[in-house]
Amino acid sequence: MISLRATIVRAAIKIYTYPYRKRFASLSRSIALKNSPYKPPKGFVFTKEVYGGVQVEKLAPQKAAKGIVLQFHGGGHTASMNDMYRKAAERLAANCDCVVYSINYRPDAELIYPALHDACYAAYAALCKSVLSNGDFVAVGDSFGANLLLSACLRAREDDLPLPSALICLCAYIDMAASGDSYRKNCYKDPLYAMPKRYDFKEHEKQMLRISPYCGNTPLTDPYLSPAYADFRAFPRTLIQCGGLENSLSDSQMLYDGLIASGCVAELHVFDGMWHDFMYMFPRLKESRLAWREIYEFIAANFSAVDRTE
Q1: Smallest Cα–Cα separation from 292: which of 3, 90, 76, 104?
Q2: Domain count of the chain?
Q3: Does some domain include residue 307?
Q4: Where is the Alpha/beta hydrolase fold-3 domain (predicted)?
């Protein structure tokens, strides 16, 4: 059973999103997340740098750092870097004593694959040839950001570039074919994307699967577009978290199964009763605090023991 506060928040989300859900509107396109001028917290330095022609935001503690985290933000292919992800970078930097690099790729509703994947990989490759050259870093991606992260790692493996020492995939959106059974089982449950109960799934299956126009003419099971179908051999230890009510819950399960089948070490934590990106949207909920604590501990366990300043 989830906490009372989470139950109330979930109900409020369902009410707020109803006008969008009843017409199957994209939340990332319809609701603009706050993106105000950023001021880093005390004790941290914030800079904007360019790697591979792509802007990367760096948040670094003024004291010695224990390691580096590379963040791939989510938001489909339409939402840009915003306050929610900068707050996530703050939590990571403060609780893990680390430098956080966030790839600030430029989304656009008109972009077609592989535009965003190419941009993120260009930044990743350039970072790997400079500050990430020894591979001593942890990479995190949520939602579509997990897709971009995993795709970048697949390409890095081919190009003999360093892979992260560990991966964190939160509420992964990595099966662009939406083939998993959670898209049907949770079609009335997900407070962000559920359709009204008066709707029939078979009649609205196409709208519920939400095949992204970003895919263009690329086969939906292409592993670089849909890493759920990838061979993950030689991938590092991976932590996967997701909400039990997500339409895309199956994506996280497919990722876990694929990693295990490839001989990798992976952990999957499904938070019953929770929704997509709950730990980012409402970090103070009991369930979110548990998720973040698990993330911090996972990162700490995968940093080297040597302090470093970047």
Answers
A1: 90
A2: 1
A3: no
A4: 69-279
